[in-house]
Amino acid sequence: MKKIASFTVNHLTLQRGVYLSRRDALQNGEVITTFDIRMTEPNRQPALSGKSLHAIEHLAATYLRNRNDWAGKIIYWGPMGCRTGNYLVVCGDYRPDDILPLLRDTFAFIAGFEGDIPGATARDCGNYTYMDLARAKADASRYLDEVLANPVTEYPQ
Ligand SMILES: [Zn+2]
After folding, report:
1. Gap from CA of 117 to ligand 1 centroid (Å)
2. Quick check: 91 and 75 in contact, CB under 8 A?
3. Backbone angles phi, psi at 18, to 5 degrees
4. Which keywords label this protein (predicted)?
């Protein structure tokens, strides 16, 4: 089988950052953009915990879909299986710089979140106790301070 595009990124030198992963044109000409929201250095820093990433997923998805200026363009937010980051899929042709303010707001929301995680109930989620809010807040805060302040946005060659 053909190696898919996301496996051709050189993970040996990939830094934490915000990357344009894919740009897909639909048949009607509309563009769907997939961003790589990379929170840890692959294979060099510890991956995020599954529980942290799950809490980040619930909080980010909730925040993004409640942002009036972006909600209608958000298609998907979800964790990478390798637990080093997330994918954000948006409707429209965008670059990392276009979404940096939105990402900073999203991670600031997570870093400061108090209370019950939205959707963290047996009715609303498939594994609702598999959450770690304290770790999610710490991971979000670190990404905000160490990466989103001045993120790398170009994949290594
Ligand atoms: Zn869930």
Report:
1. 10
2. yes
3. -130, 115
4. Lyase
The structural domains of the chain, ordered by start, are 5-148 (3.30.1360.80)
CA of 63 to the centre of ligand 1 (A): 15
Q: Both tokens of residue 3? A: 């190696």
Cα-to-centroid distance, 81 and ligand 1 (Å): 14
109-146 pLDDT per residue, tens: 999 999 999 999 999 999 999 999 999 999 999 999 99
Q: Which residues pair with 85 in a beta bridge?
A: 38
φ/ψ of residue 63, rounded to 5: -60, -50
Q: How far is the CA of 133 from the centre of ligand 1 (A)?
A: 13
Task: Write out pLDDT tens, residues 53-97.
Answer: 999 999 999 999 999 999 999 999 999 999 999 999 999 999 999
Q: What is the largest CA-CA distance in the chain?
A: 46
Strand partners, 79: 86
Tokens read off for 87: 């994918």
Ligand 1 centre distance from Cα of residue 51 (Å): 10
Answer left, alpha or beta for residue 34, where phi above 0 means left and psi between -120 and 50 means alpha.
Answer: beta
Spatial distance between the Cα atoms of 91 and 31, rounded to a whole number of angstroms? 6
Paired residues of 31 in beta bridges: 25
